[in-house]
Automatic annotation (TrEMBL):
Keywords: Coiled coil, Motor protein. It comes from the Eukaryota. Gene3D superfamilies: 1.20.58.1980. The lineage of its organism: Eukaryota, Fungi, Fungi incertae sedis, Mucoromycota, Glomeromycotina. GO terms for molecular function: ATP binding; microtubule binding; microtubule motor activity. InterPro entries: Kinesin-like_fam, Kinesin_motor_dom, P-loop_NTPase. Residues 425-442 have a biased composition (Basic and acidic residues). This is 16677_t:CDS:1. Pfam families: Kinesin. Residues 1-64 form the Kinesin motor domain. One of its GO terms (biological process) is microtubule-based movement. Belongs to the TRAFAC class myosin-kinesin ATPase superfamily. Kinesin family. PANTHER family: CENTROMERE PROTEIN E, CENTROMERE-ASSOCIATED PROTEIN E.
Amino acid sequence: MVINALTDEKSIHIPYRDSKLTIILQESLGGNCRTILIINSSPSSFNEAETLSTLRFGMRAKTIKNKIKANAELGPAELKALLNNTKYKAVSFQTYIAALEEEIGLWRSGGSVPKGKWVSIEKITGSLPGTPDQTSVERDERNEFLILENELNDQIAEKESELTTKESFLVEINEDLKSYKEQKETIFKENNQMAIELNELKVQLEKVTYDHKEDAIIMDSLREQNSDLATEIEELKKAIFGLKLSRDKEQKNLAQIFVELDPSDAISAKEKQFRDTLLKLENVEGDGSISFTLEELATVRRELAESKELISTHEQFINEAHYENERLTRQRDEFEIRLSTLETEYEELLENSNSNIDIIESIAELRGKLEAQFSAKKEVQQKEIEELKQEIEKKNEELHKLYSALTDLKRENEELQKIIFPKNDSNDKEKEGESDNQKNVADIEKDMAQQLADFDLMKKDLMLDLQNRCEKLVELEISLDETREQYNNVLRSNNNKASQKT
């Protein structure tokens, strides 16, 4: 393609970029280099087609003409001379063009110009003054070149200083760009991390709200238990005080009983009698003579039995008092242990209530954020619902219009059928006109059927669109209800927190 484009004089674009080889040989193929192209061909008949295509390619490539120029940098004097030559050529061409225009004007006006006065480029170049020599240019403008060289050196120094400043500025900009990129990456990572933390905080918020609800329930139950325990403690204190009083009374009674039973104290008459009878019996046993009557023996036996019963009753009373004393002391110890446990539980409950204050403050902050998000989401959803309602109303109006148009078309179709078919029955004589009328009726029926089909398609599309919008509206209402329920739950939890704080 590159060889064809180079050999074709009409082609403007040369597709060097179609392959890597042509990009590499861009300066050689039609460029500023001398090029030698070697082609390989084979005398074998087996490779005849390839040989012919290779030879044709070589013939086409042979016609390429390179425009070779010396890649040499010109000095100031050479550039000045080249500029003067170009200026001289430009002036000569301008004068030649003006002379040709004058001559053409004479020819167009009907006049004639003799052959000796025809304009030629040689005459024009001969009439103009010659170009100055290079030596004269060097003599006349050496100072100017030196001044220009000094100015250029100054400009080069300024440009170098500007270049250094620009390079330093570019380095700073690159460093700033790197820092900005790093900041962007860090911000992006922080954003992702914050999103993850936000989700975690939401989960923690839900967990904390749930725990807070449970804590509130537990607090209420503990308060009730605390009040119950306080009342129970008061009752137990009263019971302990009563038990202490009863124990003191019993101790006094026992002391009194022990005093009464003590032989060192005053002895009752029955005990004295019993002792006297015992002494008498001992004396009788010693003397061997009995001085008791039957009545005295009966009274002694009766008193002995009564004393035994009295001793047994006193022993039973002492045992019962001892057991009651042990029971009361054991119950008192249990009540004291229970009182100490209740006091420790009450202190722990107070500590938990103090630790929940920080959680309540964090919940209040999260509540504000959630309320803001909910209000924004609610406004957007309300706008979408209003837009959908407006579009549904528009679709309903379009459906009503289409229904009215359909009824009008059906009525017109029925009227046309009523008008056309009776005429065809009554006009038996006009057979030629009948065929034309039938064609017209068929065309009208086709048009009506096409219109009805288009209307049905339009109706189906509108109904489908309406159904989709209704489904979307229902989904938005469901999401709105869910957000309202969430908002109400948040409000209820916050009200519970406020009531618990108060």
